[in-house]
Amino acid sequence: KAYKNLGRIECIxxxxxxxxxxxxDMSLALFLTTKDKAEIAWAWHAVGYARxxxxxxxxxxxxxxxxxxxxxxxHDTSTLVLVYxxxxxxxxxxxxxxxxxxxxxxxxxxxGQEDYNATADLYTLWDDYDLALExxxxxxxxxxxxxxxxxxxxxxxxxxxxxxxxxxYYKLFGYWAGVLGGSQIGKFDAxxxxxxIA
Length: 198
Description:
- The protein is built from 11 helices and no strands.
- It has helices spanning about 1-15, 15-30, 35-55, 55-75, 75-95, 95-110, 115-125, 130-140, 145-160, 165-180, 185-195.
- The longest helix has 18 residues, at about 55-75.
């Protein structure tokens, strides 16, 4: 549990994902010697998360799938939804859009609610920015999920070349990223810089 918490600290406070991956691997190795399936499932999910952020997509998906198998046996629906959401993001960034859509549909199947953010995201990939904005606006997420919604809306306006609107949403993202811990602020700075160049 100490290694698990060190990995979480590396993710949240210092955003050192190589160290996070190391700590999550150490945590997983120890949890695998126990019978605690909930902790083992969490550790696989954490390893997958760190590897996804480091763009190690095949290894991330393998870890996520191991987590899913355990979570299904444990009937832990709330964590399962979270893991499918990360699998959606990993598949999308890896360029496997059909798989990404399947994971987005898993979210809907488990929660009974459409994942407006994922649907909007896919419309953005297909260059249908107006429909993407329609779905982003249906999403009422708060916290970390709401934070990424602001970023995604800003990116959509960027693609539409509506730069003032993009800046507005990027600044909302930057403000809330700071309030919620600031670990995503690098993403904000990079995209704001790209927008100013455009």
